[in-house]
Task: inverse folding
């Protein structure tokens, strides 16, 4: 009887093993038939969201790390060309010759973006700069570089000097096109600053960045910026892609009079770049709020003066005071006037003598310059003597 009970237990265990195996086989067959779950959406790397009016960075995700910029480096190439135009060293009608190097290495004989420039032809700056901006033409950038500086290498020296003058400390360029080079780097934050500089300094040229297509030499090519025509108010700026950088974008849009600039890269596909561009631009407008506290010239407070012709001076906002924060953070913010005082005369009208400091939890402190509303001279000798006696007797 005992043996029978043991045998029954063993048999039951065997049946359970068989059943488990059968069930596992069935699960594997169902798994083979079921479609694989979709991969998680790609998320951009090195993200910067900037307010276009003030230049304040609203979001920074590893935004100060120098990264390969790909064709987004052409923003600096174009800036140097625009500065040459403004200085009247060249004009839009100036014509530059297409060298064999530009044609063979970066033009029709190459696999990179180009505008079908014929070898040894002479092309107007007007066409070259549009090719560089709208269709990211590498051959156009090299022809511009050679025409302006004599060689691409010399032109890159101009790019790097200008980047340092603008305070773009992360920037180091090795070519005018953005093709991969291990030493060519710039952070997404500096790309945003460069973009804002172009938008604000060259408003008459900036609309070129919003053009959807460009035709040259009987070839019509489309602008690759996924925001143009797809996101309300989008008007630029530049895409980029190389093996080292992945897919990236500098984008800008205006809604209700407010401009936002976004920069990111590191995405694996063009489709991922397109969807991330939409998501980040929505976030730029929906997740951040801007409140104007005072317009430039508005009275904000006053500061005390010691031994001056007046006891106080009114403080005015030097520029528009705009508070930028994530929505929901503003309720916890506080603002106070800070200065090294009492102030000592003489004080010039318009002199920066104080700051309005805005701070709070989950908020990066912002400081705004305050200026004296009027000129304040020194007190007369009697007032200075009386103040000296008062301080001696009673202290400050």
Result:
């Amino acid at each position: 009887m005992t043996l029978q009970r043991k045998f029954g237990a063993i048999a039951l265990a065997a049946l359970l093993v068989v059943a488990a195996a059968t069930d596992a086989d069935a699960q594997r067959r169902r798994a083979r038939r079921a479609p694989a779950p979709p991969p998680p959406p790609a998320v951009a790397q090195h993200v910067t969201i900037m307010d276009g009016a003030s230049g304040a960075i609203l979001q920074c995700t590893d935004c100060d790390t120098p990264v390969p910029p790909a064709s987004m480096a052409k923003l600096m190439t174009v800036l140097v060309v625009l500065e040459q135009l403004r200085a009247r060293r060249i004009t839009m009608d100036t014509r530059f010759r297409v060298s064999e190097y530009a044609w063979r290495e970066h033009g029709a004989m190459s696999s990179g973006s180009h505008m079908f420039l014929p070898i040894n032809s002479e092309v107007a700056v007007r066409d070259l700069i549009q090719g560089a901006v709208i269709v990211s033409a590498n051959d156009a950038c090299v022809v511009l570089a050679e025409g302006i500086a004599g060689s691409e290498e010399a032109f890159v020296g101009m790019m790097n000097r200008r980047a340092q003058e603008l305070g773009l400390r992360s920037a180091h360029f090795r070519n005018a096109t953005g093709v991969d080079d291990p030493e060519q780097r710039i952070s997404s934050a500096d790309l945003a600053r460069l973009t804002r500089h172009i938008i604000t300094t060259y408003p008459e040229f900036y609309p070129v960045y919003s053009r959807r297509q460009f035709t040259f030499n009987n070839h019509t090519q489309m602008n690759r910026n996924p925001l143009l025509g797809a996101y309300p108010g989008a008007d630029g700026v530049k895409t980029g892609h190389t093996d080292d950088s992945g897919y990236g974008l500098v984008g800008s849009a205006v809604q209700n009079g407010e401009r936002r600039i976004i920069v990111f890269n590191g995405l694996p596909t063009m489709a991922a770049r397109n969807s991330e561009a939409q998501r980040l631009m929505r976030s730029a407008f929906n997740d951040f709020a801007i409140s104007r506290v005072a317009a430039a010239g508005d009275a904000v407070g006053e500061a005390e003066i010691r031994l001056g012709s007046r006891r106080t001076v009114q403080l005015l906002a030097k520029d528009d005071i705009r508070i930028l924060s994530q929505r929901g953070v503003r309720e916890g913010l506080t603002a106070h006037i800070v200065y090294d005082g009492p102030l000592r005369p003489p004080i010039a009208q318009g002199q920066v003598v104080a700051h309005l400091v805005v701070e709070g939890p989950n908020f990066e402190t912002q400081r705004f310059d305050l200026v004296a509303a009027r000129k304040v001279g020194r007190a007369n000798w009697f007032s200075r003597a009386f103040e000296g006696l008062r301080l001696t007797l009673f202290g400050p």
About this structure: The two ends are 108 Å apart (CA to CA). The chain has two domains: 45-286, 293-394.
